[in-house]
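testing teh design pipeline on a random one, pls ignore if ur not involved
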C-alpha cells in the first residue's frame, strides 16, 4: 500500500509540475500554428493569431494592412478553400522575454493552380501580451527563383 501511495504522489507531482517553454519555442509555435491555420483555410482563427494593432505587409497586397479586422478581410480568399502553406526554413531570434522575430521561407499553394508551390519569404514579430503570444507584425513577399 505504501508503494502505491508513493507512486501516486510521484505521479501527481509530475502532472502538477508546470513546464515552461522558452520565448523562442513559444513564438516558433505561433508561426507553426499560423501555417497550419492558413492551410486549414480558417480565416477567423487566423485573424485571432494577430494582435489587435498588428501590421501585415501581405504577399499579394500593395498596401499595409492594420488591425485584426483588416487582416481578416485580407485573408478573404481562404473562404473559397484550397489554400495551403508549408514552412521550408525558419530562424528564431529572441529580442527579449516578450518579443521574438521569426523569419524564413515558406511556400503557398492553391488548388486552382494544382497546388504548384509559390515560394515566398516571411518575417513575423511575435510578442507576449497579457500572457499570450500574438503576431504584432508579419511581412511576406514572393521569393525570387535566383539572385538577380
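output:
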Amino acid at each position: 500500500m505504501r508503494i502505491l501511495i508513493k507512486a501516486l504522489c510521484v505521479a501527481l507531482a509530475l502532472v502538477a509540475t508546470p513546464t515552461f517553454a522558452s520565448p523562442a519555442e513559444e513564438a516558433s509555435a505561433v508561426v507553426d500554428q499560423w501555417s497550419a491555420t492558413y492551410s486549414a483555410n480558417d480565416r477567423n482563427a487566423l485573424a485571432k493569431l494577430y494582435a489587435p494593432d498588428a501590421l501585415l505587409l501581405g504577399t499579394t497586397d500593395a498596401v499595409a494592412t492594420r488591425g485584426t479586422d483588416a487582416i481578416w478581410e485580407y485573408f478573404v480568399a481562404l473562404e473559397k478553400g484550397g489554400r495551403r502553406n508549408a514552412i521550408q526554413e525558419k530562424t528564431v531570434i529572441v529580442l527579449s522575454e516578450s518579443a521574438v522575430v521569426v523569419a524564413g521561407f515558406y511556400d503557398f499553394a492553391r488548388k486552382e493552380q494544382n497546388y504548384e508551390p509559390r515560394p515566398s519569404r516571411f518575417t513575423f514579430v511575435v510578442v507576449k501580451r497579457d500572457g499570450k503570444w500574438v503576431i504584432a507584425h508579419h511581412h511576406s513577399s514572393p521569393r525570387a527563383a535566383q539572385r538577380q
